[in-house]
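Example 3.2
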Amino acid sequence: MLRLKYLKSCWQLLKSSCEGAATLANTSSSISRNYSHVPPQGPSSFGLLFDIDGVLVRGRTPIPAAKQCFKNLVDRNGKYKVPVVFVTNAGNCMRHTKAEHLSHLLEVEVSPDQVMLSHSPLRMFTQFHKMCVLVSGQGPVEEVAQNLGFEDVVTIDMLREAYPVLDVVDHNRRPKDGIPPTKGLQPIDAVVLFGEPIRWETNLQLLIDVLLTNGNPGQTWNSRQYPHIPVLACNMDLLWMAEAKNPRFGHGMFLVCLENLYKKVTGYDLKYEALIGKPSVVTYNYAELLIRQQAQSLGWTTPVKRLYAIGDNPMADIYGANLYDRFLQASRRTKAKMQAKGGVRAVDHMEEAKMTPTELGGAAGVYGSEEDLPEGCSSILVCTGVYSREQQELLSDPMQTVTEQQIFHGHRDFRFDPSLTQPSFVVHDVKEAVEMVFQQEGWPLE
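Structure, written as tokens:
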């Protein structure tokens, strides 16, 4: 029942947001200042979705092709030529901080309105905003949660201080002079997992405590208390690419640990109310909304017909873009079938697209007209991050695919469909990707 409530909430918010996007062209927003108002010449209009780690940067080091790429994407006045959104599974900072960081690295102005972090869609999950939520991750997690709309936030550090005998794996953090008193907190109603923490053992221990005590970690574990309180998780990346030669553990690896610990202790599967971030459909639906708003600010009167998602991770970027393309095709078919019945339901999208509620993630957006729907979302795989040139050689053999030599790195609750890991295009780097898109769309690229 709770899942159906949040599906409906996301649905209505996306509807109202899409309707409100039409007014953005008349506002003096940071988007409109950042774009040159040149409507597309002819019928072609598109938007670009950029992953960050492994596509534009490696850790804190910009990939050389990225700077040149963005010089081509802006005019002489530094105004963007087409709508651009940066879609990352990172979530340990605020949007304006990530925008400033990208502006510095790419040497072009990046607005916070162009940045979408893994947790950004949580703004739509309003039914949780008044609950007392425990947040896990690193960086300014309390500030991030409050900025998203959560009103009553408890951090892992606050929980440690309130219950000082819970965190004892590190002997140096154990109480030395007797057992300090418990301060106590109000019961926790839900858990929000933003990203991988610094001290995994602390977060894993305290999260299990909260889940097995129905949000009252000072009480005795009770594995019969099932299902547990709601858990919302952002960023399912098992691996990500920094400066090291090999990928690093991501938040998806932390989720694997938490899921297995919970099942080992209770015998039950950990359940999620929502899994957001790439490759979930709700993430791409939200990113498309931002693209549509920017197109309005550009003065475009033609709807955006195609999205191009550029990424380096077949199991996140490519899988997600292809899953969203499948959703778009199913949405167009479903809408045509349901117009006579007065609307489109989330369940119709799931049946038509053959998706689970987890994969759909509450992304049953309602569009003003059938023509508003993009024709599709193309996935572009670059070879500068998680996906390597060595793997690209597999493509030369028609009997092999990118994924036949790999196990599934996606989340437990996503069904593995090898066809969704196959990119629409494979290029060397992001500069080549943008040049290919402009050529594909018949746009001049200076």
